[in-house]
Design goal:
This protein is an alpha+beta fold. The protein has 9 helices and 11 strands. The strands form 3 sheets. Strands 1-8-3-6 form a 4-stranded antiparallel beta sheet. Helix 1 packs across helix 2, helix 6 crosses helix 9 and helix 7 packs across helix 8.
């Protein structure tokens, strides 16, 4: 699919964009202009895509794999904000406002990404309101998710917090179950709990056959059970 420089051909790029959830259904002229500037990149697992504080000159669409969005602390522990799976985008905030990156982006698995530079993307937003509306929808969804995560950390106990996080991270796989490419430490970072506490709860659910713990991932076996727990009352005392 790719040449030595990691770029797809024009036909491949158009097909990728038409199939991507952000761009699907947009007029052909938008797809044509986007494909003329989009660059495909293969990223190895563990590689840093960009770091907090760097200039934000591009946005990325995930074609394959999972990307971790996080911010490091002085003691070396990451604050994990999100995991972007296939069909998602990231890097849009710095691309839109031109300010430095607000977090690190790291390939949680081997990834294939589509990159679009700010200088190419902003004129399209000005010319095509349909595309601008799609980006606004993404930003609103991201803001709602962030607000919900903060509320969960403040008000919910560990089991309810963890169940909601696993369902959110499983995304489209939630109704039927599926594997999430995430470590137990990363899950703990997402919900603001220690690895030890998170591990104890995950082991309990593994004994109940709700999940299965694998190296580098968690398999959801009973999403309905997690959903029932997530939707029940689970507020902390105090």
């Amino acid at each position: 699919m790719h040449g030595a420089d990691g770029q797809t051909g024009a036909l491949d790029r158009k097909a990728i964009l038409r199939d991507h959830s952000l761009f699907s259904g947009l007029p052909a002229e938008i797809i044509d202009r986007l494909s003329a500037h989009a660059i495909a990149k293969d990223i190895k697992a563990g590689a840093t895509i960009f770091s907090k504080g760097e200039p934000g000159q591009s946005m990325f669409a995930v074609l394959r794999g999972t990307v971790k969005i996080c911010a490091p602390s002085a003691d070396g522990k990451d604050a994990v904000f999100n995991f972007i799976a296939e069909g998602g985008i990231f890097g849009e905030i710095a691309l839109l406002d031109g300010h430095p990156r607000t977090a690190d982006a790291i390939a949680a698995t081997s990834c294939e990404l589509l990159m679009i530079d700010r200088r190419d993307f902003l004129p399209l937003l000005r010319s095509y309101p349909e595309l601008a509306v799609r980006i606004i929808d993404v930003l609103c969804a991201r803001l709602r998710q962030t607000s919900e995560q903060v509320e969960d950390i403040v008000f919910l106990d560990l089991p309810h917090r963890l169940a909601k996080a696993l369902l959110r991270l499983s995304g489209d796989k939630a109704p039927t179950g599926g594997k999430i490419a995430i470590t137990q430490q990363e899950v703990g970072d997402v919900i603001g709990m220690s690895r030890e506490s998170t591990n104890r709860q995950l082991r309990d659910w593994e004994r109940r056959k709700w999940i299965k713990l694998e190296r580098g991932g968690i398999v959801i076996l009973e999403p309905a059970a997690l959903k029932m727990l997530a939707e029940s009352e689970g507020r902390t005392g105090g």
